[in-house]
């Protein structure tokens, strides 16, 4: 049973759940049923950050333009441009033990592609969700409903996986931003 | 001071209004076309599972009066009582559409507001610049997800009202394959339901075409035998001057379109294998001379197996969505089925009411509907 986390809530992931080796971040949404507007193109991204919450290089930003981290620990399964299909439309995998030691946390974000140009925001998208699951057992751990919670925003920091000693925890940040992916890149120290 | 909504705005309703009170949603389109407004009460699958919860000019109240529509000048006012809605209705969709030519790009303004006790709580303002080729707008949705919420959609469909009907789906017939591309222009009637044909502004109703189509049974398997059913389309008519009659292939009473009774039957499709079926045409320009028309079908040859025939009558006009009357009661062994009653409304248009009542012959039909004619047996 997935937990609907409250904003700011922190939960243990690996503690007491030593079998959790590979985490899947799934993002899903419905296609735009109305005429006149563009397709809804939502993107899931991951920022591999140091202790200061910044990427060490632009290569630590895994997204549709850089689908696999050099360490092989984090990769995106591909870029869905419309939301067509059931279940997850985009997915990112994390193999916890492969994450480089200097990476203290991995922030997951969901953004709308070209929000200003297309005049779009999360409130226009139907049934947008992000979920975090154990990829091996496919057990869902955490789930967010983006449409209800983020309305007119165009970028959301869903949460972050972070190290605490030898364990991994999850912090449900749930912060919405305007300005799409570019605003988030700036926040995490990626040069755009 | 009303909060301004933008496209995509979502919030809990209780943050803006006390939802135990009566609320009103007001919409007004300002431009050069004719505009219609509608509220669709849909279920958890976004479908209009109960047509009675489509509130619009032809049906201004929902069954429990939870939604009541009125006009205030150019504006449409929907008074709603969310707490009284049946639990199956989880979303109210408020729409506006253009009746006739033009697109939303050409409008001067569109406003939608949520009010409580006359005071505006939330407001949306748009203009033609916000749209392109849309002919229908979904303004806002009030929906229940744990609590009642509002979503400012402010987006639309290029296909107007028929796209709205298609989207919410409740009154859509499942079209036979050859007619699928026209599916958007259909409204299926329920038994006893009555609608008025839409009249184009300033011109006559034009020709009204009633089409009867049915399925001919194919061969049942390799060794099966095909057994055909022949359905005949026919009608009883009553003119304003008191003259009455029947139009049917039986007795070769095919009628006449340009002189009384202004109703005519096309050729007889004996097998049902023609994709088009049978046609009864009514001259809408002479509506003022016609009182009522009772459209019926009967089985001329073959066993009364209505399920196998799976007959459908479609009433088409130039400007109305097609009206579908499906003969969806199959139990009767009677050979005649009264399909629909068309009645003159103020010499302007016809109402169409779905009957689907079975009788053992024309005479019995006549009596049941008070036509009062003399009957004798005839042959084709």
Structure summary:
Chain A is mainly beta and 192 residues long.
Key words describing this protein structure:
heterodimer, A: 192 residues, mainly beta, Lipoxygenase-1, five-stranded antiparallel sheet, 9% helix, 35% strand, globular, B: 380 residues, 2 domains, seven-stranded mixed sheet, six-stranded mixed sheet, 3 helices, 25 strands, 5% helix, elongated
Major sheet of chain A:
7 strands, antiparallel
Strand order of the largest sheet of chain B: 13-23-22-15-20-19-18
How many domains make up the 3D coordinates of chain B?
Answer: 2
Principal-axes geometry of chain A comes out as globular
CATH topology of the largest domain in chain B: Lipoxygenase-1
Q: Give the strand content of chain B.
A: 35-45%
Question: What is the number of helices of chain A?
Answer: 3
User: What level of helicity do the residues of chain A show?
Assistant: under 10%
Number of helices of chain B: 3
CATH architecture of chain A: Sandwich
Principal-axes shape call of chain B: elongated
Rg of chain B over CA atoms, rounded to whole Å, is 24 Å
Give Rg of chain A in angstroms: 16 Å
Succession of helices and strands of chain A: EEEEEEEHEEHEEEH
How does this model look, in words?
The complex is a heterodimer of chains A (192) and B (380). Chain A has helices at residues 115-118, 146-150, 180-188; strands at residues 10-12, 22-28, 42-49, 61-62, 74-76, 90-95, 105-112, 129-134, 139-145, 155-164, 167-171, 175-177. Chain A has 3 helices and 12 strands, in the order E-E-E-E-E-E-E-H-E-E-H-E-E-E-H. With 192 residues, chain A is mainly β. In chain A, 42% of the residues are buried. In chain A, strands 1, 3, 4, 7, 10, 11 and 12 form a 7-stranded antiparallel β-sheet that branches. A 5-stranded antiparallel β-sheet of chain A has the order 5-6-2-8-9. The mean pLDDT of chain A is 89. In chain A, strand 10 and strand 11 (167-171) form a beta hairpin. The longest helix of chain A is centred in the C-terminal third of the chain and has 9 residues, at 180-188. Chain A has one domain: sav2460 like domains (Lipoxygenase-1, Sandwich). Chain A is globular. By secondary structure, chain B is mainly β. Chain B has 2 domains: 3-172, Lipoxygenase-1, CATH 2.60.60; 188-368, sav2460 like domains (Lipoxygenase-1, Sandwich). Chain B has 3 helices and 25 strands. Chain B has helices spanning 160-168, 306-309, 362-368; strands at 3-4, 10-12, 23-30, 34-42, 54-55, 67-72, 75-80, 91-99, 109-116, 119-126, 136-145, 147-157, 186-188, 194-196, 207-213, 230-239, 244-247, 255-256, 263-265, 278-283, 290-301, 312-316, 322-326, 336-345, 349-359. In chain B, strand 24 (336-345) and strand 25 form a beta hairpin. Chain B is elongated. At the A-B interface, loops of A face strand 12 of B.
């Amino acid at each position: 049973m997935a937990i609907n986390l409250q904003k700011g809530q922190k939960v243990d992931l690996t503690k007491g759940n030593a079998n959790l080796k590979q985490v899947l971040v799934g993002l899903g949404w419905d296609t735009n049923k109305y005429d006149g507007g563009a397709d809804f193109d939502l993107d899931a991204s991951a920022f591999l950050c140091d202790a200061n919450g910044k990427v060490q290089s632009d290569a630590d930003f895994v997204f549709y333009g850089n689908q696999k981290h050099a360490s092989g620990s984090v990769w995106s399964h591909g870029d869905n441009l419309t939301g067509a299909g059931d279940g997850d439309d985009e997915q990112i995998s994390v193999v916890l033990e492969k994450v480089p030691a200097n990476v203290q946390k991995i922030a997951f974000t969901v953004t709308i592609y070209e929000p200003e140009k297309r005049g779009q925001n999360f409130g226009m998208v139907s049934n947008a969700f992000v979920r975090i699951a154990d990829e091996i057992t496919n057990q869902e751990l955490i789930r967010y409903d983006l449409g209800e919670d983020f309305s007119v925003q165009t970028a959301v920091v869903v949460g972050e996986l972070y190290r605490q000693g030898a364990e991994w925890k999850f912090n449900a940040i749930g912060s919405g931003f305007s300005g799409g992916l570019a605003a988030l890149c700036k926040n995490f120290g990626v040069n755009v | 001071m009303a909060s301004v909504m933008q496209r995509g705005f979502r919030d809990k309703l209780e943050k803006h209004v006390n939802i135990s009170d009566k609320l009103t949603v007001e919409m007004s389109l300002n431009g050069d076309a004719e505009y219609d407004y509608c509220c669709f009460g849909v279920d958890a699958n976004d479908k209009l599972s109960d047509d009675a919860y489509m509130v619009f000019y032809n049906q201004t109240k929902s069954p429990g009066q939870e939604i009541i529509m009125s006009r205030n000048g150019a504006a449409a006012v929907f008074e709603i009582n969310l707490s009284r809605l049946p639990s199956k209705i989880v979303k109210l969709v408020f729409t506006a559409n253009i009746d006739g030519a033009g697109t939303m790009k050409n409008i001067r303004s569109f406003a939608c507001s949520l009010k409580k006790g006359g005071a505006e709580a939330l407001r949306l303002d748009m203009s033609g610049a916000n749209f392109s080729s849309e002919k229908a707008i979904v303004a806002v949705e009030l929906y229940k997800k744990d609590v009642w919420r509002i979503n400012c959609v402010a987006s639309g469909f290029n296909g107007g009202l028929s796209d709205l009907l298609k989207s919410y789906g409740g009154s859509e017939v499942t079209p036979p394959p050859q007619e699928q591309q026209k599916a958007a222009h259909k409204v299926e009637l329920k038994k006893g339901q009555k609608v008025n044909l839409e009249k184009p502004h300033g011109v006559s109703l034009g020709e009204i075409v009633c089409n009867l189509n049915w399925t001919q049974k194919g061969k049942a398997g390799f060794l099966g035998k095909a057994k055909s059913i022949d359905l005949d389309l026919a009608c009883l008519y009553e003119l304003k001057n008191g003259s009455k009659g029947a139009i049917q292939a039986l007795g070769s009473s095919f009628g006449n379109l340009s002189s009384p009774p202004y109703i005519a039957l096309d050729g007889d499709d004996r097998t049902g294998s023609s994709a088009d079926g049978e046609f009864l045409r009514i001259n809408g320009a002479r509506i003022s001379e016609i009182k009522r028309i009772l459209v019926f079908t009967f089985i001329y040859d073959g066993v009364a197996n209505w399920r196998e025939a799976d007959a459908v009558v479609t009433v088409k006009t130039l400007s109305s969505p097609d009206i579908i009357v499906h003969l969806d009661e199959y139990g009767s062994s009677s050979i005649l089925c009264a399909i629909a009653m068309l009645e003159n409304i103020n010499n302007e248009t016809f109402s169409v009411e779905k009957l689907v009542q079975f009788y053992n012959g024309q005479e019995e039909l006549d009596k049941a509907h008070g036509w009062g004619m003399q009957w004798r047996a005839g042959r084709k």
